[in-house]
Fold this protein.
Amino acid sequence: MAEKMWGGRFKKKINKDFFHFQKSIDFDWKLAEYDIYHSIIHVAALKEAGVINKNEAKILTDGLNDIFKEVRKGIFEPDFECEDIHTDIQNRMEKKVGELANKLHTLRSRNDQVVFDQKWYCYKEGVYILGLLNVVLSSLNNLGIKYKDVFLPGYTHTQRAQIVSFLDYTGAFFCMFERDFERLDDFVRKSSIYIGSGALAGSAIPKSAYSEAIKKFLKKIKPDINTGRSKTVKNSLDNVASRDFVIEFLNILAILQMHLSRLAEDFILYSTKEFDFFDLPEQFCTGSSLMPHKKNPDFLELVRGNSGKIYGNLMSVLTTMKGLPLTYNRDMQTDKEPLFSSTEVIEDELKVMSDFLSGVRLKKEKILSALEDEELYATELVEFLVKKGLAFRDAHDAVGKLIRYSEDRGIKIKEMNTKDLTRFDTRLTSEEIKEVMTPEYAIASKKSLPKKKQTSSKKTKN
Ligand code: ARG
């Protein structure tokens, strides 16, 4: 067990099992980078406030920068015997700079650190996810463009409904992911990361000292950050007590997951022998140990399956926060695993999804044979009769009867002669219906839609 950041008032040693039960280093080490940001700002504020001198500030900052470099290089090894990442960094500083490290935590609380760290985490991962989503958007767009001349049966109630273009089909998912992009973009743009709450009541360090420290920090660290992100605290109680930003982030990810899962479900369905419209890229499928013919859509199934985890993570934090009295409570430590889990799962899914989409191939022959199903053109036939002056209800009824007749007799509508057809309505002629009952006519007759054009993929503006 490593040294703790508290203990003066305790006579008894902490119970070993309880220590393991309550520690968070096993997962919160992922916040190391942001915890160092907090410390760097804090040291600068202590110097501004005259609590430590210039030399002390330099020694502390140099030590923190050394640890920061380790984190950035990916060689930071958490000490899993510590209570949490805040303690780990404090202990490292003691090893690096000796007694002076005891001044690092002057007038601050882990309650202020942890919310600061998590907000930075959401912000940085949010920006990263925007980049990944952008790539998925362009893969989806490219897939649509590649097969822009393909028509597909469209479904409602999982029953064949009307003809749609493949470009509109992929465009539907594009629209969903585009809204996800906008939601997330909005979230990262508005995130404000406060410092200076103390444990809950603020601290004796003047606001001006924090402001100055923040200014310097943002100037130095600028690479992948938007300036103005960290701020002096507005309401210290709210700052340490609130996790709505975690819930909002998890909510955005849950909606994105729902869209990924729906895409997965469609592609699974369309790759079955029953549909047989899509050929899925082999590199993302697996076989069966028993059945040699199998090519299973495991990537898509796992994407669909992850919905349980990702919705659960959102529900978990919502439930934890529901009845907590102000301000900070240790319950809030349990928000980290759900937060990290959803973030990592979504990132993994998006990383694979763009390559997966690039490898999807359409089985044009099979799709063409599905398009021969005459029922897909029933609505177009109704509209054709309406254009000829028949009332919609009557046209609907006439075509319904025609379909039924064709089904009962096993005769294709297109093969019926005009004499047969006019039994249902005098306006139906054999030549004209042959023209109407084509994918080209069906698509061209839809005038309410925008002209087809290539959708451009989003760009993250950060
Ligand atoms: N590990 C805690 C959390 O994740 C932060 C530390 C605050 N601990 C405390 N005893 N006030 O919420």
Notes: The first helix runs from residue 16 to 22. Strands lie at 151-156, 159-165, 193-195, 230-232, 278-279, 361-362. Residues 168 and 449 are 10 Å apart (CA to CA).
